[in-house]
Specification:
The complex is a heterodimer of chains A (255) and B (286).
Chain A lengths: L1 H25 L2 H4 L2 H34 L5 H13 L2 H12 L6 H6 L8 H25 L3 H9 L4 H29 L3 H6 L10 H11 L1 H33 L1
Helix pairs in contact in A: 1-12, 3-7, 3-9, 3-11, 4-7, 5-7, 7-9, 8-9, 9-12, 11-12
Chain B lengths: L10 H22 L14 E8 L3 H14 L3 E8 L1 H9 L6 E3 L3 H9 L3 E18 L19 E4 L4 H15 L4 H10 L1 E5 L2 H9 L5 E5 L5 H4 L2 E5 L7 E9 L5 H12 L1 H9 L10
Helix pairs in contact in B: 2-10, 3-4, 5-6, 9-10
Classes of the chains: A mainly alpha (255), B alpha/beta (286).
Function (chain B): Involved in the transport of molybdenum into the cell. Part of the binding-protein-dependent transport system ModABCD.
Subcellular location (chain B): Cell membrane
Protein name (chain B): Molybdate-binding protein ModA
Chain lengths: 255, 286
């Protein structure tokens, strides 16, 4: 079993190491500090943050409902929320464009009021939410499912109202699943390309997130593209490590 | 930052976290708003020019955009570079493009068919195909004819990619040419070991030494790879030249400004910049 883990880790590590080594060889560290790179990084940080806030605020109660209530149509709703996972990102982008573009199903009506969603930074967040939502909701729901209802009921019996029971009993117990789901969703949002470029376009500083910047640099300068890839790798690694560390401390404190 | 649920399980702690999250959401939403501002309104003619251009034009148009902004005080040029098919789809769905510069006549035609162009498209650049091999040329390819030699690892972009389609057109022309013939074409096609997602990926394979050769545009030999590949010219009588059309999109915010951009691209200055980045001029001198 250790061998299997080692094999998997090695398989993931070697290509990543190759990317880093290429950067060192080609001396393209300065590409990581270029305006294109920094603008893309700032935009990715901004949009994925907004995406995560939305997902946690809306997705958590949604996941709880899906886990607890067995209402007619629950299974269909569950499947609906899962759908973006199987949709190729470009198809998701076209779908968003057809729905919210200027000539879109809803977009046309919004445009009549002067609201334009497509090709803006908001569109980037929308695309990210669309593709990343299932990853959070799914794991959050699984986490809530694993919380023993009898513990929740005990809290209610002790005089807590539903909301208080939710925050002081259910959430802490489901916490590891919520964090894992959030990390997965964030990673998915950070790497989103197809839906973003089609629905939001590729405008530097406004919609050119890191994956779009990597694609654009790849068209003209392979070394810069690799440097950017290493940059986002480093960034993601740091964030995930930090989150895991912070949440481990939090669960230890509670224990 | 992901995973923002507070560590403290108490109700008060959760309330505080909730407030923090809501605050963050408001800030994030506020800073995400807008599609990029208008240029300096106090300038002579402020405003934004939105250009949709094929990815291969990133460097050339980037340079021209800086020129244009210098000449038109207060104007901001914002460009979105993507594949021509993506751009055409977006324009047809109402994207706020003022100008469309395509690497493909077909995509421009698709937009024109929807009645979304203002005036007729004009050819602003041409691009010829070349064959490239790694600089050290392990397969020893010295001329176009060498491509049919068995054992050569040839890669091409995927079938729908225009550059690959042109490559196949070139081979078809070669099969009708007595100096090459149909066996040449068959032998070259047999040498294809893989199809890549796009031209750049194919170029990258050659740069990395993974492949012995590929077909690409002359403009794909960007400065960063110029030293790492050697160019093998395709005989002129066989070569297919891609023509790049540009047009003002109907419904452009400032059609006059859009037309001025088109004029810049077509001018001597524009043609010089395009040539610098590997493109051929728009028209052969009559």
């Amino acid at each position: 079993m250790v061998g299997a883990l080692g094999l998997l880790a090695g398989f993931v590590a070697v290509p990543i190491l190759s990317l880093v080594l290429w950067t060192v060889r080609e001396d393209s560290w300065h590409a990581m500090a270029s305006p294109v790179a920094l603008e893309a990084l700032a935009l990715s940080v901004k949009t994925t943050s907004a995406t995560m806030v939305l997902l946690v605020l809306v997705g958590t109660p949604a996941a709880y409902l899906l886990a607890r209530k067995d209402f007619p149509g629950a299974r269909a709703l569950n499947t609906l929320v899962e759908l973006p996972v199987v949709l190729p990102p470009s198809a998701a982008g076209i779908a968003l464009l057809l729905a919210f573009g200027r000539s879109g199903l809803l977009g046309e009506r919004l445009y009549a009021f002067g609201i334009e969603l497509s090709f803006t930074t908001v569109a980037v967040v929308m695309a990210e939410v669309f593709v990343a939502a299932p990853f959070y909701v799914r794991q959050a729901a699984t986490g809530f499912l694993s919380v023993d209802r009898s513990i929740e009921e005990a809290a209610l019996v002790d005089g807590a109202d539903r909301v208080r029971a939710f925050f002081s009993v259910t959430v802490p117990l489901a916490f590891p699943a919520l964090v894992a789901g959030a990390i997965t969703a964030w990673a998915r949002a950070l790497g989103e390309f197809g839906a973003t470029i089609i629905f939001a376009g590729n405008f530097r500083g406004i919609t050119q997130t890191i994956p779009l910047a990597i694609y654009s640099e790849f068209q003209r300068n392979i070394d810069a593209a690799v440097a950017l890839s290493v940059l986002v790798l480093g960034f993601a690694f740091t964030v995930i490590l930090a989150v895991r560390h912070l949440t481990r401390r939090a669960t230890e404190q509670r224990g | 930052m992901p995973g923002k649920r507070g560590g403290r399980g108490g109700f008060r702690g959760a309330r505080g976290t909730l407030a923090l999250l809501l605050g963050l959401a408001v800030v994030a939403a506020a800073s995400c708003g807008g599609a990029g501002g208008e240029g300096n309104p106090g300038g002579e003619r402020g405003g934004t020019l939105t250009v949709f251009a094929a990815s291969s034009l990133t460097d050339a148009f980037g340079e021209l955009a800086r020129d244009f902004e210098k000449r038109h005080e207060g104007v901001e040029v914002r460009a979105s570079y993507a594949s021509s098919s993506t751009l055409a789809t977006q324009i047809i769905q109402g994207a706020p493009a003022d100008v469309f510069a395509s690497a493909d006549q077909q995509q421009m035609q698709n937009v024109a068919d929807e009645g979304l162009l203002s005036g007729k498209p004009r050819v602003f650049a041409r691009n010829r195909e070349v064959v490239i091999a790694p600089a050290d040329n392990p397969a020893g390819i010295r001329g176009f004819g060498d491509l049919s030699r068995p054992g050569i690892r040839l890669v091409l972009a995927a079938e729908e990619v225009p550059a690959a389609e042109y490559a196949e057109q070139i081979l078809r022309k070669a099969s009708e040419d007595p100096s090459y013939g149909p066996e040449f074409r068959r032998a070259v096609l047999d040498n294809i070991v893989s199809r890549e997602e796009d031209v750049r990926a194919a170029v990258n394979r050659v740069v990395a030494g993974d492949a012995d050769a590929t077909f690409c545009y002359a403009s794909d030999v960007t400065p960063d790879v110029r030293e790492k590949v050697r160019i093998i010219e395709i005989p002129e009588e066989l070569n297919v030249v891609a023509t790049y059309p540009i047009a003002v999109v109907r419904g452009a915010k400032d059609p006059g400004l859009a037309r001025e951009w088109v004029e810049l691209v077509l001018s001597g200055e524009g043609q010089r910049v395009l040539r610098k980045w590997g493109f051929m001029p728009a028209a052969r001198e009559p």
